[in-house]
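To: structure subgroup
Subject: Chain for Friday's discussion

All,

I'm putting the inputs and outputs inline so they're searchable in the archive.
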Amino acid sequence: MKTFMHKKGLDRKIIDRIFPRLKACSPIHVVEDINRILSLGATKITSNRKNKNIIKSFPPTTIIHGSIDKTVPYTLASEFANSLATIGVETPEVIIYDGWR
C-alpha cells in the first residue's frame, strides 16, 4: 500500500506518519515475512509462536476481484492465495469477475 500511495504522489515519510503500523496489519506483509523466513532455509515456521498463531488464525477466505481493476491488478489476488497456501493456510477461493473494477 505504501508503494501504491507513494506512486500516487504521497511522500513516504507522510505515509509512515499516517500509518505507522501499516506493515504489521497487512496480511500480504505477514505472508511476505513468512516466505522470507522460508527462503532463508527454514524448513518449519511452526517453531515461531507468532507465525504459528497467524497461520492458525486465518479464517476460511474468499478473495473476490474485478478483472479491470486499474489500481490493483487482479493477478495479485491469485498470487496472494498461492502465498497463503505456501505457508500452510487453507487455500482461499479466488473469484475473478470479468469486467468488474
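Points worth raising on Friday:
Residues 26-97 form one domain.
The beta strands are 62-66, 93-97.

D.
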